[in-house]
């Protein structure tokens, strides 16, 4: 009599909405811990490589993180003519810092992350994104972001809000008070970039609407741009571009940026211009 062969497979499932799930086959659970704020897991998957998961929610994958981090960084850097001082809120995985460190003209980067254990685990297990956190220009602050930004005035040329979804530890980073505080922390020609989530599913689109509405009240120039990230809900992802002075297309320094010879895999200046041309349903959602 033949013996039955039982094959056990481990799968990670990201709950995109109440009715939509996204799953990937897991080869190994690399590391897990409980911090003061959340559960942190780093998994090795068959298709997406290593993935960072916070409280069960997918944050980044080794395979497509470059798309997110390039688009949140190089769009403002190709517009602002003299970024010297940068504040990055969140970004505990280090990917945004990695992209910023490609610019020799940047003199100082403050990274404010509430959960030190996220950064510690990425330094140990996710070197693809954390590889530039030891750059001498980078100064890491492990504290509550809103409290930190309140102390700043006319301090930064660029603020990048690279935080998790608008609940849990990051909930306070999607309010009018927070965006107003960022406005005061920026210099007279400063730029704010905010990750806006996906406009596709209704559970996420309400957050997109709220964030865009709050930023428009505070900044004289406010718009939205997009990219495609396969592992994120619907794959369609938005970022908010807000500025005291610059238009992201009219003030694009295309030739100057291209002469820098910065190595990217997703971003280029043609895509930069195209990313601000939004589908009709997004324009209707944001009343643009």
Note down, in words, how this protein is organized.
The protein is α/β, with parallel strands linked by helices. It has 2 domains: 52 residues, Spermidine Synthase, Chain: A, domain 2 (Roll); 221 residues, Rossmann fold (3-Layer(aba) Sandwich). It has 10 helices and 12 strands. A 7-stranded mixed beta sheet has the order 8-7-6-9-10-12-11. β3 and β4 form a beta hairpin. It is globular and about 75 Å long. It starts with 9 loop residues before the first strand and ends with a helix. The model has no long low-confidence stretch (mean pLDDT 93).
SSE inventory with pairings:
Blueprint: E1 10-15, E2 21-34, E3 39-45, E4 49-54, E5 57-61, H1 65-77, E6 85-90, H2 95-100, E7 108-112, H3 116-125, H4 127-130, E8 138-141, H5 145-150, E9 156-162, H6 176-185, E10 186-197, H7 202-218, E11 221-228, E12 236-243, H8 254-259, H9 269-275, H10 280-285
Parallel strand pairs: 6-7, 6-9, 7-8, 9-10
Antiparallel strand pairs: 1-2, 2-3, 3-4, 4-5, 10-12, 11-12
Please tag this protein with its features.
about 290 residues, alpha/beta, Spermidine Synthase, Chain: A, domain 2, Rossmann fold, 2 domains, five-stranded antiparallel sheet, 12 strands, about 30% helix, globular
Helix content: 25-40%
Low-confidence stretches: none
CATH-defined fold name of the largest domain: Rossmann fold
The level 1 CATH classification of the largest domain is Alpha Beta
CATH-defined architecture of the largest domain: 3-Layer(aba) Sandwich
**Rg over CA atoms:** 19 Å
Shape: globular
Please indicate the percent range of residues in DSSP E strands (runs of 2 or more).
Answer: 25-35%
What number of structural domains do the residues give? 2
């Amino acid at each position: 009599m033949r013996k039955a062969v039982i094959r056990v497979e481990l799968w990670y499932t990201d709950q995109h909405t109440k009715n939509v799930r996204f799953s990937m086959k897991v080869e190994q659970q690399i590391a897990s811990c409980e911090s003061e704020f959340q559960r942190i897991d780093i998994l090795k998957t068959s298709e997406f490589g290593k993935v960072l998961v916070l409280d069960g929610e997918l944050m980044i994958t080794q395979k497509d993180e470059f798309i997110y981090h390039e688009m949140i960084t190089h769009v403002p850097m190709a517009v602002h003519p003299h970024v010297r001082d940068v504040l990055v809120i969140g970004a505990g995985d280090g990917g945004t810092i990695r992209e910023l460190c490609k610019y020799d003209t940047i003199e100082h980067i403050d990274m404010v992350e509430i959960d030190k254990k996220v950064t510690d685990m990425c330094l140990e297990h996710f070197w693809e994104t954390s590889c530039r956190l030891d750059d001498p220009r980078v100064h890491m602050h492990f504290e509550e972001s809103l409290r930190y930004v309140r102390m700043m005035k006319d301090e930064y040329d660029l603020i990048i809000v690279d935080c998790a979804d608008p609940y849990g530890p990051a909930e306070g980073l999607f309010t009018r008070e927070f965006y107003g505080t960022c406005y005061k922390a920026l210099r007279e020609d400063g730029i704010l970039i905010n990750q806006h989530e996906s406009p596709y599913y209704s559970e996420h689109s309400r957050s997109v609407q709220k964030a865009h509405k709050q930023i428009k009240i505070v900044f004289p120039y406010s718009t939205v741009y997009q990219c495609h990230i396969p592992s994120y809900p619907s794959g369609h992802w938005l970022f908010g571009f807000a500025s005291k002075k610059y238009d992201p297309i009219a003030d694009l320094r295309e030739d100057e940026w291209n002469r820098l010879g910065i190595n990217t895999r997703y971003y280029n200046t043609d895509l930069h211009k195209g990313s601000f041309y939004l589908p009709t349903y997004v324009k209707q959602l944001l009343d643009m």
